[in-house]
Design goal:
2 strands; about 60% helix
Length: about 325
C-alpha cells in the first residue's frame, strides 16, 4: 500500500502548501486602507511651482481615492479569477462602494463643476475620465478594469495639471452653491439606498410610498400596498462592506469640498452642517471587533452590525438634506 501511495505524497504536500499560502494571503489582503490627508495629497499631486486654485483639492481627492483602491495591500481584487482574490468578497465589495462614489463625483466634475452653464462645452479630459471610471469592475483582461481606471486617472491628472496652469483658461472648476447642491442630491440618493439595504438585514414590512406627494402621479406597474423587504443572509456582509467603502471615499470628497467650497459654505452658514456629515460618516470606519458581520434581530442578545452602520448612514443622509436646504437659501 505504501509503495502506491508514496508518489502522491509530494503532490499532497504541494497542495497543502498552496492552501496555506492562499490562507495567509487572504488574511494579509483582507485590509481596508486608512484615511489620507486631502490637503497633503493635493500638494503632492500639484504641478511644481503652481499656485493653489479652487478645485485642486477635490480633484486630487478623487485621484487619491482611486489610486488607493488600485494600489492598496493586495492591489485591486474585484476582478481576480484566481485565489486568494477570487475567494474574497468583503474587500471587493468595499472597492465597489468606493468606486461608485468616485463615479458620481467624476460625473459631477464633467457635468457641473467644470462648466459655467448648461450651454458651455465639456472639458476634454473629463470626457475621457467619466466613461473610463464607469467601466465594468470585474473585467480581468482585454481590457482589465485596472487598465481602464488608470486611463481615467491619467485624464484626471491632466485636468488637474491644466487647472492650475494660468496659461490654460479652458480648464475650470466652479465652486458654486448650485453645483454643490446637484452633487449632494446624488450623494443623498446613494446614502438613502444604502441605509434602506442595511436596515433590511432584519426584514421589515414597509408601506409603499412610491407616489406620495403627487395625486396625479402614475407608475408603469401597480405596486403592492405593503412590501416585505429582507436582505438575503449571504448578502448581509456584502451590503455592509459596500457601505463602508462608499463612506470611506465620501469622507475624503467632503473634506475636499470643505476646502474648495469654503467661501460658499461660510456665506450660507453651512460649514458646521458639512462637518456633521463627515463626523457621522467617520463613525462607519470604526474597527469591527468581530470575526464576522453579525445579524441579530433589532433588540436581540447578538449584535446587528448592519443596523449600526445604517444608523450612521441615515444620520449622515439627514444632514446632507439639511445642507442642501441651506445651500438653496439666498
Amino acid at each position: 500500500m505504501n509503495e502506491f501511495s508514496n508518489p502522491f505524497r509530494p503532490l499532497a504536500a504541494l497542495l497543502l502548501l498552496y492552501a496555506l499560502a492562499v490562507g495567509v494571503l487572504m488574511f494579509i489582503w483582507d485590509f481596508e486602507p486608512g484615511q489620507f490627508d486631502v490637503q497633503a495629497n493635493a500638494n503632492a499631486l500639484a504641478r511644481a511651482g503652481a499656485d493653489t486654485v479652487v478645485g485642486d483639492v477635490t480633484t486630487a481627492a478623487l485621484i487619491g481615492v482611486l489610486n488607493t483602491v488600485l494600489e492598496k495591500r493586495g492591489g485591486y481584487l474585484s476582478n481576480d479569477i484566481f485565489p486568494p482574490g477570487a475567494l474574497m468578497d468583503n474587500i471587493p465589495l468595499w472597492e465597489f462602494g468606493a468606486i461608485t462614489q468616485s463615479r458620481d463625483l467624476v460625473r459631477a466634475l464633467r457635468n457641473d463643476f467644470s462648466r459655467s452653464q448648461t450651454q458651455s462645452t465639456e472639458d476634454d479630459d473629463l470626457i475621457i475620465a467619466d466613461p473610463q471610471l464607469h467601466f465594468d469592475t470585474e473585467s480581468w483582461i482585454l481590457p482589465s478594469s485596472e487598465g481602464e481606471y488608470r486611463t481615467g486617472i491619467a485624464a484626471l491628472e491632466r485636468y488637474l495639471d491644466r487647472l492650475s496652469d494660468e496659461r490654460n483658461p479652458d480648464a475650470q472648476f466652479y465652486a458654486r452653491a448650485d453645483n454643490l447642491r446637484d452633487w449632494l442630491a446624488v450623494v443623498e440618493k446613494r446614502l438613502g439606498s444604502l441605509s434602506q439595504r442595511l436596515s433590511a438585514s432584519v426584514g421589515q414590512v414597509r408601506i409603499n410610498t412610491d407616489l406620495k406627494g403627487d395625486i396625479a402621479a402614475e407608475q408603469s406597474k401597480e405596486g403592492a400596498d405593503s412590501l416585505i423587504v429582507k436582505t438575503p443572509w449571504l448578502e448581509i456582509d456584502d451590503v455592509f462592506y459596500e457601505a463602508r467603502g462608499s463612506a470611506w471615499a465620501l469622507i475624503h470628497f467632503l473634506k475636499a469640498v470643505e476646502i474648495d467650497f469654503a467661501s460658499v459654505l461660510e456665506n450660507k452658514n453651512a460649514l458646521v452642517s458639512l462637518r456633521q456629515i463627515i463626523r457621522e460618516l467617520e463613525g462607519t470606519q470604526e474597527l469591527v471587533r468581530s470575526p464576522m458581520i453579525l445579524n441579530g434581530s433589532g433588540f436581540s442578545f447578538i449584535a446587528n452590525h448592519s443596523l449600526v452602520m445604517a444608523s450612521y448612514i441615515s444620520r449622515a443622509n439627514a444632514a446632507v438634506i439639511d445642507l442642501r436646504n441651506l445651500l438653496a437659501q439666498g
